[in-house]
């Protein structure tokens, strides 16, 4: 087997194209058990996601988890699935299109694509398509505000694997995080204030819950900055909203397995608040750039049930930033900063864009 992938035909005189790739975690192709088995098999096999020795983890994953969890997960996905597919896929694609349009309005000649770390379209297939279209400079934008080895780093890993198979490598850059970016925080603040305009500002004794995806506590002990970056995001958002310490809490959701994870946990917190007489809870999930299973099913549905069954009276989920105009503007600002030094304003790449579809078909990638 050849070590390197075949190179697309060289076109003399073609301008150097610049591309931006938004990468999100991933989604199954359908809300079915077979699709979930494929997706979970890829996701949970990543050694950055599950840091258990392969000899120990492999029998558990393939003998137990992939035979029991897909059916349960498929039912959860079905509860949030849309006519156009997975919410995460729908919003990520929309973010890419809107970002391309806004960058174009600002005078940048760049192509904006999107990929999923797990599932389709894969990072490698999108990079194949961009390279075939003549893009020699690529900015990878993992859509995780807070850096974690199990999220952002896996995107870098996947791009690096693609580079290892590429003879004529493009110039490539990576965004690390944007947890304290002013535009990102302003967009979060705006989303909360718009919500309060619709349902009223919380009364004395009500709470804002700021929930982030959890990670095993071991990740913090080993030096992962995720926990600290989540707390910084939450603190800065609370300051913008003028909240006192007792009016909000930062928690962590989506615990999996028996190991200790980052605390406090979201679900037990909601239950405890309901039992303690907290009347109303508003929940926001700043770690998700787009709504997905973990926000729409786990928080908007299960979280609501936990709180109300425990005695709470009013529960609201504040949607992710998704395609909000101020978030797309903030994303464009972040992207522009990381494109600095690449001449994206004076290089007409229409020629490479015109051949993108045909070259993509040649390499078997989605056009």
> What is the CATH architecture annotation of the largest domain?
3-Layer(aba) Sandwich
CATH class of the largest domain, named Alpha Beta
Secondary structure tally: strands: 8
Strand arrangement across the biggest beta sheet:
2-1-3-4
Largest sheet: 4 strands, parallel
How many DSSP helices? 13
What is the CA-based Rg, rounded?
Answer: 21 Å
Helix content percent band: 40-55%
What is the CATH fold-level name of the largest domain?
Rossmann fold
On the 0 to 100 scale, the average pLDDT is 93
| Poorly predicted ranges | 348-367
What portion of the residues fall into strands of 2 or more residues? Answer: 5-15%
Pairing-aware structural class of the strands and helices?
alpha/beta
What is the H-and-E element order?
Answer: EHHHEHEHEHEHHEHEHEHHH
Q: How many structural domains in the coordinates?
A: 2
Termini Cα gap: 26 Å
What general outline do the C-alpha atoms trace?
Answer: globular
Characterise this structure.
It is a single chain. By secondary structure, the chain is of the alpha/beta class. It folds into 2 domains: about 15-180 and about 325-360, Rossmann fold (3-Layer(aba) Sandwich), CATH 3.40.50; about 180-320, Rossmann fold (3-Layer(aba) Sandwich). It is about 45% helix and about 15% strand. It has 13 helices and 8 strands. The strands form 2 sheets. The chain has a 4-stranded parallel sheet with strand order 2-1-3-4, sandwiched between helices. Helix 3 crosses helix 11 and helix 9 runs parallel beside helix 10 (about 295-310). The longest helix has 25 residues, at about 55-80. The chain is globular. The two termini are about 25 Å apart. The model is unreliable at about 350-365 (pLDDT under 50).
């Amino acid at each position: 087997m050849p070590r390197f992938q075949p190179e697309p035909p060289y076109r003399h005189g073609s301008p150097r194209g610049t591309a931006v790739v938004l990468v999100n975690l991933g989604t199954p192709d359908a809300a079915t058990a077979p699709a979930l088995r494929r997706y979970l098999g890829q996701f949970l096999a990543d050694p950055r996601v599950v840091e258990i020795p392969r000899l120990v983890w492999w029998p558990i994953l393939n003998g137990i988890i992939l035979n029991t969890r897909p059916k349960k997960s498929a039912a959860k996905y079905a509860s949030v699935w849309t006519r156009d597919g997975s919410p995460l896929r729908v919003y990520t694609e929309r973010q890419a299109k809107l970002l391309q349009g806004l960058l174009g309005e600002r005078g940048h000649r760049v192509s904006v694509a999107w990929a999923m770390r797990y599932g389709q379209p894969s990072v490698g297939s999108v990079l194949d398509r961009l390279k075939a279209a003549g893009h020699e400079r690529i900015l990878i934008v993992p859509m995780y505000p807070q850096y974690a080895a199990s999220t952002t780093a896996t995107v870098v890993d996947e791009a690096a694997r693609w580079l290892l198979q590429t003879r004529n490598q493009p110039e490539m850059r990576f965004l690390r995080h944007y947890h304290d970016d002013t535009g990102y925080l302003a967009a979060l603040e705006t989303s909360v204030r718009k919500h309060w305009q619709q349902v009223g500002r919380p009364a004395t004794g009500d709470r804002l819950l700021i929930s982030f995806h959890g990670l095993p506590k071991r990740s913090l002990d080993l030096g992962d900055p995720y926990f600290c970056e989540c707390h910084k995001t939450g603190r800065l958002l609370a300051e913008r909203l003028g909240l006192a310490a007792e009016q909000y809490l930062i928690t962590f959701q989506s615990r999996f397995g028996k190991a200790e994870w980052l605390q406090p946990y979201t679900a037990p917190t909601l239950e405890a608040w309901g039992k303690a007489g907290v009347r109303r809870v508003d929940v926001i999930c700043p770690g998700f750039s787009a709504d997905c299973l973990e926000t729409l099913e786990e928080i908007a549905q299960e979280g609501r049930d936990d709180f109300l069954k425990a005695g709470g009276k009013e529960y609201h989920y504040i949607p992710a930033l998704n395609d909000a105009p101020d978030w797309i503007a903030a994303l464009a600002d972040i992207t522009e900063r990381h494109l600095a030094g690449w001449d994206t304003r004076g290089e007409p790449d229409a020629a490479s864009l015109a051949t993108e579809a045909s070259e993509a078909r040649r390499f078997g990638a989605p056009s």
